[in-house]
Sequence to fold (303 residues):
Amino acid sequence: MLGRVAALHYLHGMNHQEIADLLGLSRVQVTRALAKARREGIVEIRIHSDEPIFPDLQVALASRYGIASTWIAPSFPEPNETLASVGTLGAACLQSALRPGATVAVGLSTTLASIAPHFGPDQLDVTIVPAIGSRPGARRSVSPHEVARQLADAAGARAYHLPAPYLASSKLSAAMIRSEPDVASALELARHADIGLFGLGGVTHGSGTVVDTTMSDEKVSQLIARGAVGDISGSFFDLGGRFVTGPVDDRMIGLTYAEILALPVRIGVAFGRDKVQVIKAALTGGIITALVTDYETANALTT
Fold:
């Protein structure tokens, strides 16, 4: 039924009432069927235009922080709807930056998982690799390996695995893991990536994967005392975008702060009231070269 309703509407130009009369349905049933057809991938809509949704706000954001690439999605009362909206523009932003043969390094962030469903379906000659290890057995967070694989599957690209946890049990263990050939080669590939795709985490519990999964209240307090306001793929920074030493830096398996900043293009995908200060610091310090966020967050960043 979904396919019939979708074909009548999108291919044959029939309106909701005409379809309802033809198939013996109500207009509400037709509307719900069309919405479900989009959710289930029966209908895919492509808009061949690069016109921004909020041009004035985009210009204000770019002017204030000196950033050339800003992507602003609509905000919704339901957080999951906003997440999907941001994911849609995140996919568009990434695809606009890709060139044949490019390599993309993917950071540690649950927000990045929202991009994959909207990525592709063009077959892309690109490579996607994690910029940091994964959290084995994690339930609440999505690993960079999973995001890399999902993006590659969506676009027919190549995905590399970084076979390591993002946090080793000790400094010695971390050094040994980094020296493993498969780990070393994946990290080397990430270091020379053309594009970095990152989320931005905060320093309060509930606002970032690293804080939520690795740090006690005492360690968080120590970070805040040093001036930390957020992290990018496990590396913490202050209001000016300067690196702040964290309690688990020597145990992390992934790109260092300096290596992240050396990537030519660094796309930050983040939104929400608890991320405004973090995003502002990342923009002020030049940590990210492109931003994908929602209307409410962008508005807060410009006022």
Observations:
- The mean pLDDT is 89.
- Residues 55-301 form a domain with the Rossmann fold fold (CATH 3.40.50.1360).
- Residues 79-97 form the longest helix (19 residues).
- The longest strand covers residues 69-73.
